[in-house]
Each structure stands twice: as structure tokens, then as C-alpha cells.
Amino acid sequence: MTRSPMLPLMLLAAALALSACASGPTAATPDSATDPARGYGEMAPIPNPDGSRPAAAPRPAAPRPSPQAPVAKPAAPRPAAPVVTPKPGANAARAAQLRAQGLEQLNRGAIDRAVALLFQASQLNPGNALIQRDLARAVRIRGAVRAKP
User: Quick check: 134 and 102 in contact, CB under 8 A?
Assistant: First the structure.
């Protein structure tokens, strides 16, 4: 069997490479993967080619508590007014009458009277979208009429 003249050089290079890996600067550094001071997800420092360690990045400072204005104490709750629940049918019927009267007054040109009637209707039946729409329309018309010179 013939030996290649390059074989000893190749073995020497492999031995040097293995020894450099085992005793390189990362083997003796305290920042190994098991370092408990480094938090989860932080990157391990990579040594410079000359073997020195890179400067550590500054850690963000803990947030300072911001000075807060004194909080005013809430006022004592007022006693609730007794709730009177009138008959829902009676209110809806009366609100419908007031709405009809308000629209009639609006068509006649008595805008202030129409707004007053529609407002009363909205008080009696606040959930009625038609009354709310008509009241908003009457208020817009009143504003337009008052704005004209």
C-alpha cells in the first residue's frame, strides 16, 4: 500500500482544527448556553476573530413610575328617584298622537310648535326611531329657518 505524501499534512491540519475547537474562546466564556443570567430568547455573544468578546449591549432600564395627579374621590351617590313605570301601550299611543300632531304642525310651518310636540313624543317613547328621526329633522329645519336673514 502506498502512502500519499500529503496524508501527514492532512492529519496535522485536522488535529489542529479539533484542538482549536475544543479550546477556543467560546469554551471558556461564562456566556454559554446554560448561563442563567441570560434570559430566554436572548442571543449568545459571538466572539470576535481576535478572541475578544464583543461589548455587551446595554439592558433597558426598568420603567420609572410616572407621577400621577391625585385622584379625586367620587361624590357620594344620590338616592335614586323612584321609577314610575306607566303602561307601555298608553305611552306608545300618546306618543303616536303627539308625533302626528308634530308632523302636521311642521307641514303648516309652525316649526317651534312641531319641535315641542315631537320632543314630548320622544319623552313618552324614547325607543321609537321614527319619532327620533322626525324630531331631528324638525330641529334641523328650525335651525335652517333661523339662520336665513
Answer: yes
